[in-house]
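Q: What changes when MRU is included in the input?
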Amino acid sequence: MRPIKVQGEEVLVLDQRLLPTREKWVRISSAEDAYTAIKTMIVRGAPLIGVVAAYGLALSAKKVSDIEEYRKMGEWLKTARPTAINLMWAVDRVLRATGSAPSFERSWEEANKIFSEELENARKIGENGEPLFEDGDVVLTHCNAGALATVDYGTALAPLRVAKEKGKNIKVFATETRPVLQGARLTAYELVKDGFDVTLIADTAVGLTMMKGYIKKVIVGADRVLRDGTTINKIGTFQVATFAKRFNIPFYVALPSSTLDLKSRVEEVVIEERSPEELFYIKGRRIAPRGVKAFNPAFDITPPELITAIITEKGVYYPPFNFGQGP
Ligand code: MRU
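A: The predicted holo structure follows.
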């Protein structure tokens, strides 16, 4: 299941806000379109955000002749969502590739490269992570780090897909992932489509589900991983990791190298805060009283001591993590 189609110079993305009830494709023709798609979460998931930004910026090179204007456009595009490092990484790659003047050909070629690298990375993450999962495992995942968050296969879901291809019976527990419900709407959707046995749980049911012994392993994706393995991922990941530690359940994080941030310290990472409306409303219906306030961080921070292993396209890494030189 691919959430992005590139046909000639036409880029189409699946509107993930409407899933699983409607499949609608939206055209990306410029950096402005990419900005809107990323900000409003038509597309989401760190690797996919990077790929869409790269194509949007490349398409704008057709209309811009001044390199300063093109660079400014890239810097603006980076502000669409502040936490997923893939966005900054992809924009910087396109800007570097274009050289001293905006070049559609060079920018487009770089966007295509990013797309195919991410496709290959996801497959390799799957192959590297697959041996960690045994026939009969029941695996909990949080948010959506599947095909819909990448260009295919996923990050967290890739090892599970490869394990299934190899004949292993893997059952999945998906957290619903309030407030945007990526687990209920997207993870459940793509895994059911692929023939997995999937059980949906409320985010608040993680502790009991683990206490009952239903979960054998956990795997999640990431929006940014720092040199020491500190993992910034969907809000709630830290709670899941804390419970996993409490019940001695292996907790894995899967990501491509494009999600590594080797420069920032944890205090420097901006945690996106999204609109209170996401908490006040469900499917357009207000559920909270007027006058209440909301705090709606989209991501949280999982310290490395809660992580059993980190899986990338280059291999599987165990603590103490040190991505100082890159994996
Ligand atoms: O707010 P989202 O839906 O963009 O958040 C997505 C996540 O947190 C994913 O777990 C992460 O991007 C990894 S995607 C392979």
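Observations recorded in class: The mean pLDDT is 97.
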